[in-house]
Here is the input.
Amino acid sequence: DEIGIEFLSTAFDIESADYLDKMMDVYKVSSSDMNNFPFVEYQAKKNKPMLISVGAANEDEIDRMIATVRKVNNQPLCILHCVLEYPTPYEHANLNKIASLKEKYKDLIIGYSDHTKPDACADVIKTAYNLGAVVIEKHFTLDKTLKGNDHYHAMDKEDLKLFRKNLERTFEILGSFKVGALEDETL
Here is the structure.
């Protein structure tokens, strides 16, 4: 709260969803539960915005999940492209799926849940952003040497600083949407 980072956790059962309710303004559903429609609906009934990862899901499953949410919840809904491979090899990131999701689900927010190892240029996350992902989920750790499935492919504070620097450079390079000559071109 002091530094403006919103707390978020993924619930994996009803008790956890209830426990987390007062602590979060957004619900996050993992790819492993996105087609557990009774559980998705239970969380959707909390009437909060939702982030739902759609790793390993086909279009029918995504459509059914969206219908399940929309039956009880009209809050913002973000679906996150995700690859269920830990860590995800760069060549398996399949980032063009983001563009496909943006085309098919125009009324939803599209994001990316990244499980690749952080790279020096943040190419994976920058590319996801440039393809239209407006939400980026990246696991974060204070120590990559800790045991567990997430730490070794998560960002640490140094990765996050580097990512921010790279993203700022990307914004600088992207420039403006304005059509016309730049001021420096007219001198």
Q: What stands out?
A: The helical segments are 14-20, 37-44, 59-70, 96-104, 123-130, 157-174. Residues 7 and 80 are 18 Å apart (CA to CA). The chain has a mean pLDDT of 93.
